[in-house]
Structure formats: C-alpha cells, structure tokens
Design a protein that fits this description.
54% of the residues lie in helices and 0% in strands. The chain has 157 residues and is mostly helical. The termini are far apart.
Length: 157
C-alpha cells in the first residue's frame, strides 16, 4: 500500500464535532459524507484505506484523496465544503457592452415588415452588427428577462 502524502490526524475536539455533525444529520449530504470520510481516514482512529472508505461511502477514491488533501492544506471547514469553481462553466457571451446594444435594439423600431422584435431577429442583428461573434435566442431571452425588457411591449419605460 503506497504511503499517503496527506495524513488525516484529528484531535479530540475535531473528532467530536465531526461525529456530532454525522449523528445530527441536519447538514447537506456532501458535508456528512466528507465528515464520515475524515472520521474513517483518521490515522488515530479507524485508519481505513482510501479504497475501503470510498467503497463504504459510495464515492470515488479521488474524492477521499481530495478531502484528505483539503483538510491538511486548508483546514477542516474547507474539507467539509465542496471545491469552489475557479472559473464559470462557460464564458459569458453577452457582456455589459453587448447587453447595452441589445437593449438599444429591443427598445428601438422593429425591422421593416415586423410589428415587433423576435429573439431570433435580435440575435441575428447582434451578429450582423459584429457586437458578438455568435449568440442564440435563449441567451438573448435571458438577458432581456434579467433587465425586465420585452421586445413585444409597445412602450418601454
């Protein structure tokens, strides 16, 4: 068995706090799972292997390693939480400047032959004006909803 780089060594108070968290059961499931992982991986306690802990709590061995590493490097509070994302899942397509263009378009006159703007027309116009490289109607809809604008309203403001 390879030697663990990050060894969990809980003091008496930490062990009591984690045990209370698990027994109470009023925390999010991931937090209870992380507490259980730390309790079973404790070198002064059961000292289970990562594989055994992962099997017992239905998670991947890497999850056990990551929780142990966060405990040793960042502390118990961070170890109990989920890892925070460093970047958003996808970059925003419509930034502040593009949003301003979109609002200006939506508040302006509809194209010839139309009584009002549609989401598709607004998306196409933003691309045609080189405001954005590409944008979908759903992104346009969400942006307008966020600003409480509707392209179908006759009077805005």
């Amino acid at each position: 068995m390879p030697k663990k780089k990050y060894v969990v060594r809980l003091d008496k108070q930490e062990r009591q706090d984690l045990t209370a968290l698990v027994k109470k059961g009023k925390a999010p499931a991931y937090k209870i799972k992380h507490a259980n992982i730390l309790l079973k991986a404790d070198i002064d306690g059961p000292n289970w292997s990562d594989e055994k802990v992962a099997s017992a709590f239905c998670c991947h061995r890497r999850t056990v390693e990551n929780v142990r590493r966060r405990l040793v490097t960042k502390g118990i509070e961070v170890a109990l939480e989920r890892k925070k994302r460093e970047t958003p899942p996808t970059a925003k397509v419509i930034d502040g400047e593009a949003e301003a263009h979109l609002i200006t378009l939506a508040c302006g006159e509809a194209p010839n032959g139309r009584s009002s703007w549609t989401m598709e027309l607004l998306a196409e116009k933003l691309v045609a004006l080189n405001v954005v490289e590409s944008v979908g109607r759903e992104t346009v809809r969400k942006t307008l909803k966020k600003t409480n604008l509707s392209p179908t309203c006759a009077s805005v403001g």
